[in-house]
Specification:
alpha/beta, 5-stranded mixed beta sheet, 3-stranded parallel beta sheet, 8 strands
Length: 193
């Protein structure tokens, strides 16, 4: 989840090419490309498209996130995924697993303050400021950031959905809580390779 691919092609292209080839199937759990930085057309025609044949061969499922919503793209999502959905339900052994990006449980600022999206410059400024805070480590010190996964767990428990396990992305904080039956895949940024 949360690769937020933008115009800068970095070392993730090579690393993800190797990683994707190891698996039988891939689920892209939202925010695959970053709508605040460029258009879907620019993304599809960028070097990131070198990943597309691998993803198609792996029967990729594309779960829309809050930065790459369905309305931000077009039918060319079929270039890199075989199925496009808002969530995936799987049965693993005797457990029912729900995989979703997570923004439906915990909306981001662009969901709460839709006027932000009316200005490309404001949206870009907020996105870049968030990245600077995140990379500097200051993001981790913010009270809301520490509790984002816990908030999703509470909402999931209250929803009384039939799934036994929830897997999300969205918060950018990898998290596992087997006793609460919740996992967050974090994010994949170049800085971590």
């Amino acid at each position: 989840s949360d690769t937020h691919f933008g115009p800068h092609i970095d070392g993730r292209l090579e690393e993800l090419t190797k990683l994707f080839q190891k698996y039988d199937q891939i689920i892209i759990n939202g925010d695959f490309w970053e709508r605040f930085l460029w258009t879907f057309d620019e993304f599809v025609n960028s070097e990131w498209n070198k990943l597309f044949p691998i993803l198609k061969a792996k029967n990729a499922i594309y779960i829309y996130g809050n930065h790459d919503k369905k309305e931000f793209s077009d039918d060319r999502v079929n270039l890199f995924s075989n199925h496009q959905v808002d969530s995936v339900e799987l049965e693993v052994g005797d457990k029912k697993v729900l995989i979703t990006h997570g923004h439906s449980y915990l909306p981001g600022p662009e969901e709460k303050f839709k006027w932000i999206l009316k200005s490309y410059w404001l949206a870009s400024f907020i996105f870049y400021t968030g990245n600077i805070l995140y990379l500097s480590g200051l993001y981790y010190l913010m009270p809301f950031a520490k509790n984002m996964n816990k908030a999703i767990i509470k909402i999931f428990k209250k929803s009384n959905l039939p799934q036994d396990i929830l897997i999300t992305g969205h918060t950018h904080f990898a998290y596992k809580s087997p006793n609460r039956k919740y996992y967050n895949s974090g994010l994949i940024r170049w800085e971590y390779y």
